[in-house]
Amino acid sequence: xxxxxxxxxxxxxxxxxxxxxxxxxxxxxxxxxxxxxxxxxxxxxxxxxxxxxxxxxxxxxxxxxxxxxxxxxxxxxxxxxxxxxxxxxxxxxxxxxxxxxxxxxxxxxxxxxxxxxxxxxxxxxxxxxxxxxxxxxxxxxxxxxxxxxxxxxxxxxxxxxxxxxxxxxxxxxxxxxxxxxxxxxxxxxxxxxxxxxxxxxxxxxxxxxxxxxxxxxxxxxxxxxxxxxxxxxxxxxxxxxxxxxxxxxxxxxxxxxxxxxxxxxxxxxxxxxxxxxxxxxxxxxxxxxxxxxxxxxxxxxxxxxxxxxxxxxxxxxxxxxxxxxxxxxxxxxxxxxxxxxxxxxxxxxxxxxxxxxxxxxxxxxxxxxxxxxxxxxxxxxxxxxxxxxxxxxxxx
Length: 396
Prior knowledge:
Elements: H1 2-37, H2 44-48, E1 51-59, E2 62-69, H3 87-105, H4 108-112, H5 122-146, H6 151-169, H7 175-210, H8 218-243, H9 247-250, H10 255-277, H11 284-299, H12 314-324, H13 350-355, H14 357-366, H15 379-390
């Protein structure tokens, strides 16, 4: 019953995380587009009111005119009816951290710890997880404060820090756990930018405007800096959110480097759209991103397996599957933490094994399965399954 309820918690939290993530990212993309598409106000009187720029748009059967005031309107009161974009971010992070707790902390022995990488107890793994996420934010925030206004150097050092963190996580956790923690670190940076800098800075500016005091522009400048960072984090984080479905990425021996290339491709593609909103069309950016993805597709392609001289008997393969896989992949799993077979894949009969032969060979050869090598499959057994598949995956 406990595993069953955890599955429901996983489902509902993942659903909530997806919904609120769409809302947050959608709002972020919209405001980045809006900010980069502003034009000087067409009405001179609007410039006198403090309008910095405006954008006319058509959508949903109507016309909209969005105007930006850097330090609030001049000569008129600031509206009491302000919309604050924050709860999308907070709920996305809270649901994501809850999902991390349900899947990677409660299920640390299955999803987070890989004894082949580092032998960890569950409390130690959870402690490292929390510490890493917090430390990531502290280092990032310190870089932003020290290098404020030096955007080029900041970008280089931040990218280097993320690459180092990615590599280091792969020396501690399972590959899948390492990927998700890079995402959790970036996601925490994003939401902390909103919670610690953007919203408080905006509140200070609002208070100064309503008190009739001179408005300090620095909170707005810091908020702009952090918002820009958030938009470049977005595509890498989205990839990491879906990466657990694609073990050919993180299960590669150099999975940390695969993630670096994927993140770089995402940043290049995002940069194309950011510049395009400003009227600058640089096709080399998405072309470079696509080239990096194409390179990965070629380099990660599975190598042909030698079918071998001797025929592999299905009985030998069936025995390996029974000993190493069926604890999870059964109609009623016996492995703690599993209420049902992962992805509904049951491997209790020859027919079922034959049906999933290609996926068994791929995931076992890559090291992705068994998860964390809980059942202690050997390299010889992995080669046996690969050779059996190369010989045609006969089940008789």
